[in-house]
């Protein structure tokens, strides 16, 4: 009987390990530091108004945006220090998506029925995935980076832009 409980605990640990190992969105800065090492200088923010960090990890540059102490947007980009193409290859994209799946599953998002909207969407986001947990992932133009984000990142972006617009309007002089 003792062996059965030990086996059950072992199976539970094995089953739960990939989930905790691959959960990156939602991690804290300390967890990202443990995973990727010391952050480098970030020249351009990944998410305006958030805490932004940049990590170099095994030939990749990973930029992270943190809101309320949790990563809500991550950008994966090859560093290009090798002779290989800087474009992210399909197997690399699948590795990132597998790592960012959490407890959900990714499904490629279909383009709009409207051909003009579909064309414009593929120009700004050439390929998009949606996760059953609500997260999205998309390539940047030319597949140079793969971005994954939580719904909170988009809501934060919208609120930040609205606040900046209100500040701009409030600062307009009365001519």
Can you put this structure into words, describing what you see?
By secondary structure, this protein is an alpha+beta fold. It has one domain (24-170). It has helices spanning 2-22, 29-36, 90-100, 115-124, 151-170; strands spanning 51-57, 60-67, 70-78, 106-108, 128-131, 136-139, 146-149. It has a 7-stranded antiparallel beta sheet with strand order 1-2-3-7-6-5-4, with helices on both faces. Strand 1 (51-57) and strand 2 form a beta hairpin. It is globular, with a radius of gyration of 20 Å. It starts with a helix and ends in a 5-residue tail after the last helix.
* Approximate helicity band: 40-55%
**Class from secondary-structure proportions:** alpha+beta
Helix/strand order: HHEEEHEHEEEH
- The number of helical runs is 5
**Low-pLDDT stretches:** 6-23
SS elements, strand count: 7
Shape designation: globular
Please give the order of strands in the largest beta sheet. Answer: 1-2-3-7-6-5-4
Terminal-residue CA separation = 85 Å
- Oligomer state equals single chain
Kindly estimate the percentage of residues that lie in beta strands according to DSSP: 15-25%
Mean pLDDT across every amino acid position:
81
Radius of gyration: 20 Å
The number of domains is: 1
Major β-sheet profile: 7 strands, antiparallel
Briefly characterize the structure.
By secondary structure, the chain is of the alpha+beta class.
Annotation keywords:
5 helices, alpha+beta
Question: How do the helices and strands line up, and which of them pair or pack?
Answer:
Elements: H1 2-22, H2 29-36, E1 51-57, E2 60-67, E3 70-78, H3 90-100, E4 106-108, H4 115-124, E5 128-131, E6 136-139, E7 146-149, H5 151-170
Antiparallel strand pairs: 1-2, 2-3, 3-7, 4-5, 5-6, 6-7
């Amino acid at each position: 009987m003792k062996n059965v409980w030990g086996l059950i605990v072992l199976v539970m640990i094995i089953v739960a390990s990939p989930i905790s190992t691959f959960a990156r969105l939602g991690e804290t800065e300390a967890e990202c530091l443990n995973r990727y090492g010391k952050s480098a200088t970030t020249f351009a923010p990944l998410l305006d108004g958030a805490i932004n960090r940049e990590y170099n990890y095994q030939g990749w540059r990973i930029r992270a945006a943190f809101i309320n102490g949790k990563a809500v947007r991550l950008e994966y980009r090859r560093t290009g220090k090798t002779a290989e193409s800087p474009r992210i290859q399909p197997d690399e994209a699948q590795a990132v998506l597998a790592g960012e799946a959490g407890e959900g599953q990714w499904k490629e998002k279909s383009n709009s029925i409207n051909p003009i909207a579909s064309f414009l969407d593929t120009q700004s986001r050439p390929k998009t995935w949606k996760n059953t947990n609500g997260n999205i992932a998309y390539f940047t133009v030319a597949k140079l980076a793969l971005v994954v984000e939580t719904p909170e990142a988009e809501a934060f972006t919208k609120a930040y832009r609205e606040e900046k617009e209100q500040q701009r309007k409030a600062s307009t002089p009365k001519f």
